[in-house]
Design goal:
A hairpin with a 2-residue loop joins strand 9 and strand 10. The chain is α+β, with helices and mostly antiparallel strands. It is 41% helix and 24% strand. The termini are far apart.
């Protein structure tokens, strides 16, 4: 009896199955490292994979999201379905639009959306950038570029000032020795005094770039307590500095002296802005420490970060300088040098961190973010 042909044989192997969640998680696990909200969808819109950032934003676990129609999470699901249909018909390589993600019980989250086809497997990649996060990233980018520009400007300007300054002071001293009358020394002393004042300013401008970065174990609460005691010595009456510490924050590697100086500059700046409240006896500064989880700053996502706030109940930063308070020589106080916040930003950035400011009349909040191990 002739053998039946192979093509007529019934295979004993089980039919192919759709990818399991374990397979998808293994294939797309690298997406957990990015800070944008990412979902991988089947062509019908069902979720195959959701990264950690999307889980956090929606408040739902990856396991819960798998298999759900992702279009339903948008306030305008029709535009997302149209994008998926375009992907199915290969009408585009990538499509961008704006929409909002539903978050119960929170308000919808406005996002930029990018829809693109995955080359292998026929899946669709949907990336969402929160508009707030985009604005924050743009602000951080400006601060970083500003800090780099400030650094070059300060170094060049300081060196250009320093050489003629020494000549001016020396000439004034020689002139003083040749004066026919001691009564004229008043004028040469003015020259010498002002030259010394400018020299001191130049030294402060160059200070962050002269001292090496000495790294050791840092307890942030020891830093806070040192700064608190120093400021209270300067303002013994009328000012209360409250503590609101999270004692579980671990030690981290950093330059303790630079962090003390950075915090001291910020807290002193707050105290000096509270002059009227200090006189009235109701000035308050709060030092608050927390751990921020899964935060993004400086174009990087960090699992843990120090979230340190210096909050005062002063009049707020003047609107005229609010966008420039970290620029050198910008100050809203008579007699201020305008270097304190610039140096604070420089020292914190040396720790891969960032200083931000949110200010309204009655409440100014300086926030320091530094990565934790």
């Amino acid at each position: 009896m002739p053998r039946s042909s192979d093509k007529n044989k019934v295979s004993s192997e089980p039919p192919s199955r759709p990818r399991t969640s374990a397979n998808a998680a293994e294939r797309y696990q690298a997406l957990d490292l990015v800070s944008t909200l990412v979902a991988v969808l089947r062509i019908d819109g069902a979720v195959v994979f959701a990264n950690a950032a999307l889980e956090t934003a929606l408040g739902q676990s990856r396991r819960t999201l798998e298999g759900i129609d992702f279009c339903a999470f948008f306030t305008d699901p029709g535009i997302v379905r149209s994008a998926l249909e375009g992907a199915r018909g290969q009408d585009f390589a990538a499509l961008r639009f704006e929409s909002s993600l539903r978050r119960v019980p929170q308000d919808p989250l406005p996002v930029h959306v990018n829809v693109a086809c995955v080359e292998q497997g026929g899946d669709v990649l949907v990336e969402c950038w929160p508009l707030e996060a985009q604005a924050r990233q743009d602000r951080e980018e400006r601060l970083r570029e500003q800090a780099l520009a400030n650094k070059e400007l300060i170094r060049n300007l300081a060196h250009e000032i320093k050489n003629p300054l020494g000549g001016i002071r020396g000439a004034a001293q020689l002139l003083e020795m040749e004066l026919p009358s001691r009564d004229l020394e008043e004028y040469t002393q003015v020259i010498i005094h002002e030259a010394d004042r400018l020299q001191s300013l130049v030294d402060r401008l160059l200070a962050p770039h002269r001292h090496p970065h000495l790294v050791g174990d840092v307890n942030i609460h020891e830093v806070c307590e040192r700064v608190r005691s120093l400021v209270l010595v300067e303002f013994p009456r009328g000012l209360e500095i409250r503590r609101d510490y999270d004692i579980s924050i671990p030690e981290f590697r950093g330059d303790r002296e630079q962090l003390i100086q950075a915090m001291l500059n910020i807290v002193q700046n707050a105290a000096q802005a509270l002059t009227e409240r200090v006189a009235a006896g109701d000035a308050q500064i709060t030092l608050r420490t927390r751990v921020a989880r899964q935060v993004t700053f400086g174009r990087q996502r960090y699992r843990l970060a120090l979230d340190l706030h210096v909050i005062d109940n002063g009049p707020g930063v003047p609107e005229t300088i609010k966008e420039r308070i970290f620029y050198p020589l910008v100050t809203g106080r008579d007699g201020g040098s305008g270097l304190g916040l610039t140096l604070a930003q420089t020292f914190v950035q040396r720790h891969h961190g960032l200083v931000e400011c949110d200010s309204v009349p009655g409440r100014t909040d300086f926030r320091i973010l530094i990565p934790l191990p």
